[in-house]
Amino acid sequence: MFFSPFISKPDSVAQIMLKVLLALLPGIAMYVWYFGPAILVSITLASITALATEAAMLKLRGRPVAPFLKDNSALLTAWLLALSIPPLAPWWLVVVGTAFAIAIAKQLYGGLGNNPFNPAMVGYAVLIISFPVHMTHWLAPQGLVLTELSFAQQLQYIFSGVLPHSVTLDAISMATPLDTLKTHLHLEESVQQILNMPIYGQIGGHGSEMVAWGFLFGGLYLLASRIISWHIPVAFLGTLFAIAGIFHLVDPAHYVAPLFHLFSGAAILGAFFILTDPVSSPTTNKGRLIYAAGAAFLTYMIRVFGGFPDGVAFATLLMNIAVPLIVLYTQPKVFGKKDKNKKDNQP
Amino acid sequence: MTVQEFKDILHNGVWKQNTGLVQLLGMCPILAVSSSVVNGVSLGLATAVVMALSGAAIAPIRNLVPNEARIPVFILIIAVLVTVVQFSMNAYMYGLYVVLGIFIPLIVTNCIVLARIEAFAAKNPMWQSALDGFAMGLGLTAVLAVLGGLREIFGHGTLLSGIDLVFGEAAKSWVITVVPNYHGFLLAILPPGAFITLGMLIAGKNWLNLRAERKLKGANATVAPVDGGCAVPHGS
């Protein structure tokens, strides 16, 4: 194929997905630095499961296996899911979640390009609803707890559920910064007191804020290479900042500063990597703004007033339902047509 | 009633026009009480009994009821029969009665009951109508049993839990532990699990039908390509 030098060849799906995977690397590197290499195990497990499930489902559906396996989309789902569940989760948790995401949330709807819901988030929702206890065993950042597991001990725990003698799960795991905040707010402590706890860092959680910076860095790369447009990240983070800001201004003792919300939980990851999924997000720019703003509103409400530790996954899924409607009402004006004639264009 | 008629009605109710997998009527109880085999089968059988009785009760008076007033009359008769079943369960199977709760009286509003009355009992003689109602109920029971079984195995790792509610304390040892030390998969017990499992069952039935059709076509193409072997649609 020949292209004139001034026409750039559009990226293939596989290339785009590969770039998104690459963009996740800084965040993953930070994760490994602060929380140890256990996350790499769950990413590997999820990747293998995703590829195997995808291949099996494609075969069952009578579709060509190799071209679809090579498009890297299953890998992306696997990585996003692995990043949203605790690294020390037992191996079957990762496998069940990934297999569900690929088999039911993606392939049963018709495979890549046809899934109305973000598969990784469906996997996450299934896991947090079905196995709430296992989903709360987050690793404490290194240096914060007395006992730390070696990588071999972590592997042993992930695959056999056996902890080394005299180590309890509580000693090595802790709730997420968001969860801790919620729990202590219920105990009538003020935000200022809570943020003095050692698990909090400069703006978010100790360690997890750096992971968020890593994802932000990767997300900016995606923006710069025009894989995603600015609408979803800006609208999501902006709305989250604004809502959190209003609450914080009114009652700073009970509502934490807006930057904390941006840099904890899955906010940055969601804004750049999850909500921007090209399949399950709106195709119109105006629609993207509405979609992301709605997701931010829901995320804040679930985080602050809901029972779950983080709201990004449920917010994403709820807004996914609304996408067809949003797209329908945000169709851009056809060039050369007057606005009043808009009705005539619609069937 | 000829033997052929008998077979047709039974086949229609249990498989061909299965309420759960083909007509997709009465979804509310199917999804709500199918969290275990015992719950599912009990409600299925209760519905089957009501359907058989209402078919038998309504078919003889089908020509006496004025067309305009038929729905309220039919519903009243169904309601009486459901009340009878409800009180019997209250008296003889109290534990189960408590578990199934509101879904027993709700059999009245289950559209499958009225649908079969309208589609079948209002046009056919008594025995056929009773059999049709019972066969439809059996089909429903079968779906509820499979659905309940799958959800129970995936959700709790057991089978037949709660059987003591039906057969008394001695039956407690009948509960089968399919997967020992199971962590439980809550999603299967929750409503989404019911939807997903039912979807799989419907897909499974369609796949079986498709396979049978292909076989039939293959046989016809090689042996006798006369009538195409297509079946005349039964029932409504």
Keywords:
heterodimer, A: about 350 residues, mainly alpha, 17 helices, about 0% strand, B: about 240 residues, two-stranded antiparallel ribbon, 11 helices, 2 strands, about 65% helix, disordered C terminus
> What kind of oligomer do you see?
heterodimer
Largest interface, counted with CB-CB under 8 A? Answer: A-B, 8 and 8 residues
By helix and strand content of chain B, what is the structural category?
A: mainly alpha
The outline of chain A comes out as: globular
- Helix and strand sequence of chain A: HHHHHHEHHEHHHHHHHHH
Helical segment tally of chain B? Answer: 11
**Unreliable runs of chain A, pLDDT <50, ≥5 residues?**
none
Percentage of β-strand residues of chain A: under 5%
Helix content of chain A: 55-70%
Strand order of the largest sheet of chain B: 1-2
Characterize the main sheet of chain B: 2 strands, antiparallel
DSSP strand tally of chain B: 2
Number of strands of chain A: 2
Task: Explain the overall architecture.
The complex is a heterodimer of chains A (347) and B (236). Chain A is mainly alpha-helical. Chain A has 17 helices and two strands. Chain A has helices spanning 13-35, 38-60, 65-69, 73-84, 91-107, 119-130, 151-160, 169-172, 177-186, 191-195, 208-224, 231-250, 258-262, 267-274, 285-305, 312-329, 342-345; strands spanning 138-139, 173-174. Chain A has a two-stranded antiparallel ribbon with strand order 1-2. Chain A is globular, with a radius of gyration of 21 Å. The model of chain A has no long low-confidence stretch (mean pLDDT 87). With 236 residues, chain B is an all-alpha fold. In chain B, 67% of the residues lie in helices and 2% in strands. Chain B is built from eleven helices and two strands, in the order ααααααααβαβαα. The longest helix of chain B is centred in the last third of the chain and has 32 residues, at 191-222. Classes of the chains: A mainly alpha (347), B mainly alpha (236). Chain A binds chain B through residues 96, 104, 126, 129-132, 134, and chain B through 183-188, 190, 196.
